[in-house]
Design a protein that fits this description.
Elements (H helix, E strand, L loop, with lengths): L1 E5 L3 H10 L8 E2 L6 H11 L3 E5 L7 H11 L4 E6 L4 H9 L4 E4 L4 H42 L5 H10 L9 E10 L5 H18 L2 E5 L4 E7 L6 H15 L2 E6 L9 H12 L9 E4 H4 L11 H13 L2 H16 L6 H25 L23 H21 L5 H11 L7 H7 L4 H12 L3 H19 L4 H7 L5 H12 L3 H7 L1
Parallel strand pairs: 1-2, 1-3, 3-4, 4-5, 9-10
Antiparallel strand pairs: 6-8, 6-9, 7-8
Helix pairs in contact: 2-3, 5-6, 7-8, 11-13, 11-14, 12-14, 13-14, 13-15
């Protein structure tokens, strides 16, 4: 807090500057002024908070200085120091907004007391003003959020729009919601926040609208007098901001609406467009019209993809796994019909396939007392949008780690290895001879030992596993029944349906409906 001493007598200026330790009291003492005229010239530049001045000086008086200072900086505290105990001076001082009136003969502690009281008055005013600004800012932000999230505002809220959101003139003929994300100043939170703050400032300067700064984006509600907003001009302004701040911008635009009550629909569209931000590392302006016809890409992984993945998971080769993940994600994101929901569904289908495989391995080892592994599917909290390759890789790496852990334990017997092999090849016309060859046994001997160990013949076991797999597919995926039949090794759908009903008591359609 700055203090300016004004007196034409050098002894007074020096005494007030040296007798009182202003710095210790929390003040910054400015160089004293020798006249009211000098003080008036310096006040706009140095902006003192407290002015201690004599009344009678060469040139303008201290009371005239007080009047000028209040015009220049209305919040300034003025303390008069005078050798005249005159009631008329006191009255005029009050009229000029003087805070305190002291005689020059007053002891230093009285002057200190007057300065500290002036300081406290200033702090109290600032706190009140700050609290008012905070409350008004909170009301303003809340009102803007209400406009884009609620259909009908109450009358009281509507009356506050001209004051709190002056750029949103209800008489304008066109409004549009934009959601803006910026990147390029570094991944650290402090840099990201600074960048979004800078973008918000430029948007406020260049575009006629109200903005709201959020953690990861800026909300902009644009207001135009003309019915048609020239989107190309808006795009050019965003490109200008991008060049100026040396950053990348992604701008999601909702549709134009002709009244404030339609902002919720525009915001809903912009929010949906914003979910496409990470598709193919998009940047620039993307409108709802650009993506509204996207029907979604594939949602289920193919049998060949699942077999390839399981083969890689078995090897434990993380380099090969990462290459597979990167290629899979690249293919998904390059699909022009893809949507965030179809992308997430497809990735979850991959994770389900991996989870079913690891559970089969565990089952073949007959691990007693172990709880089933929960399927690690994508959750809303998973950061699949920012780094989809890394998220999927970590999920799959946990499966290959689990497999290596199982393989490092008790060695699986040849019957268990045969059961695992059958589980991995249910879609094929798998014969007993093929399985026996896989575990290096004579088919007749294998058949006898297999029945003794499992309690089932080879055909009974294969049929049971196929039906179990079919039940999983029917309950966990939208796959056609004919595709399910082929996935578990049956080309004849009618025969598959009859066999499925014999085992489960229900047709495939009934089972899916009830599960």
């Amino acid at each position: 807090m700055k203090v300016l001493i004004v007196d034409d007598e050098v002894i007074i200026r020096t005494g007030l500057s040296t007798v009182i330790n202003w710095q210790e009291l929390g003040f910054e003492l400015l160089a004293p002024a020798v006249s009211a005229e000098e003080a008036i010239a310096r006040i706009p530049v140095e902006r003192p908070n407290i002015v201690l001045t004599d009344i009678r000086m060469t040139g303008k008086t201290g009371l005239e200085l007080a009047a000028e200072a209040k015009k220049l900086l209305p919040d300034t505290e003025i303390i008069i120091l005078t050798g005249y105990d005159d009631f008329s001076y006191t009255q005029q001082a009050i009229r000029e907004g003087v805070s305190d009136y002291l005689l020059k003969t007053s002891p230093p502690q009285d002057i200190i007391k007057a300065a500290m009281q002036a300081k406290q008055r200033l702090l109290n005013r600032w706190a009140t003003l700050k609290q008012g600004h905070i409350q008004q800012s909170a009301f303003r932000d809340n009102l803007l959020e209400q406009l884009v999230q609620e259909d009908n505002l109450d009358k009281q809220s509507l009356t506050q729009i001209p004051q709190l959101l002056p750029k949103l003139n209800p008489d304008n003929q066109s409004f549009q919601v934009f959601i803006i994300a910026a990147a390029g100043w570094g991944e650290d939170t402090i840099y990201a926040n600074s960048l979004h703050f800078a973008v918000q400032n430029m948007v406020n300067e260049l575009l006629n609208g109200e903005t709201l700064l959020r953690k990861d984006y800026i909300l902009l509600v644009l207001s135009q007098e003309r019915t048609e907003i020239e989107l190309q001009k808006i795009k050019l302004e965003f490109e200008r901001i991008s060049r100026k701040l040396k950053c990348k911008l992604f701008i999601a635009a909702g549709s134009r609406v002709n009244k404030l009550g339609g902002l919720r629909a525009s915001y809903s569209e912009a929010s949906y467009v914003f979910t496409f931000k990470w598709f193919a590392d998009r940047e620039g302006l993307v409108t709802y019209e650009d993506i509204k016809d996207n029907v979604g890409g594939r949602t289920i992984s193919t049998q060949e993809e699942e077999e390839q993945l399981i083969s890689i998971l078995k090897t434990g080769n993380v380099v090969e796994l990462r290459m597979w993940v990167n290629e899979t994600i690249r293919t998904l994101l390059s699909d022009p019909a893809a949507t965030p929901s179809s992308f997430r569904a497809y990735v979850n289908s991959i994770l389900i396939s991996g989870h079913r495989w690891i559970e089969r391995v565990r089952a073949m080892q007959a691990l007693e007392g172990e709880e089933p592994l929960p399927a690690r599917l994508l959750q809303p909290s998973d950061d699949i949008t920012a780094r989809p390759e890394e998220t999927l890789f970590k999920h799959l790496q946990s499966l290959t780690d689990k497999y290596q852990e199982l393989a490092a334990g008790e060695r699986v017997s040849y019957i268990k290895r045969a059961m695992a092999y059958i589980g991995d090849h249910l879609d094929n016309n798998l014969t007993l001879q093929q399985v026996a060859k896989h575990v290096h046994l004579n088919p007749n001997h294998f058949s006898e030992v297999f029945k003794r160990e499992t309690g089932l013949t080879y055909i009974e076991f294969v049929t049971r596993e196929r039906m179990r797999r079919a039940m999983e597919l029917l309950s966990q995926s939208p796959m056609k029944i004919s595709d399910v039949a082929r996935r578990v090794g049956y080309e004849d759908v009618k025969y598959f349906s009859q066999l499925f009903k014999k085992v489960s008591g229900k047709t495939p359609s009934e089972y899916r409906t009830n599960n």
